[in-house]
Each structure stands twice: as C-alpha cells, then as structure tokens.
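[Q] Does anyone have a clean structure-token version of this?
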Amino acid sequence: MGRRKRKRYKKPIRVVKRLPTMFQCPACGQVTLSISIDREKGIAQIVCTNPDCGLRCIVKNVPEIYQPVDVYAKFLDAYAKGELDTFCASKEEEEAPKAAEEAGAVEAVEGEGS
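[A] Here you go.
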C-alpha cells in the first residue's frame, strides 16, 4: 500500500516596495512633480511637469542621505508655511502681463491723439 501524497504549498512571492519618483503637486493637485537632487551642491530642484501649472522650486541645504521622498516632505512643509520662493507660471499668468502691457500701450496712443 502506498502512502498518501502531501499537497505542496507554493512560497508567496514578496513584492518589493519602492519609493515613489513622481509626487502630487500642491499647486495643481496632479501627480506630476519630479525631484532631482544635486548631491555635490546640496540642492534639490523641484519641477511640475504639468504645462498648465509650471511650478518650479529650488530647495537648498539638502543632506546627502536625503532621498526624493524626504525632499518632497521638506518642500511640502515649507510650501504650506509660505517660506519658499516658488516660481509658478501658468499660461494665464504669462498672458496677463502681456495683455496689461498692450492695454497700457493702447491707452498711451489714445492719450497722444487727443
């Protein structure tokens, strides 16, 4: 007589969790924020790739051991407090000064003719 066969169990495959590389932009709310770190200079450059948002920021004094996730957390804290000098240029903001300059030029021309 033979022995009863045992059922073989498969080992569960463990998924390696990785840190994110794209983050949510606080200005536009989309996941389009990318962070590049220059470790030699200790500077991180943060850029929103959404063409409507255009948020750009430079974070200084970044330690060498910081990962992009750490820089993003530091950036969010400073952005919420308003401590960072951010450059956010959307299409509407770029067009507004041009329209104001053109309106001023039109008013000046009208004033000269009177």
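[Q] Thanks! Anything notable?
[A] Residues 90-114 have pLDDT under 50 and may be disordered.
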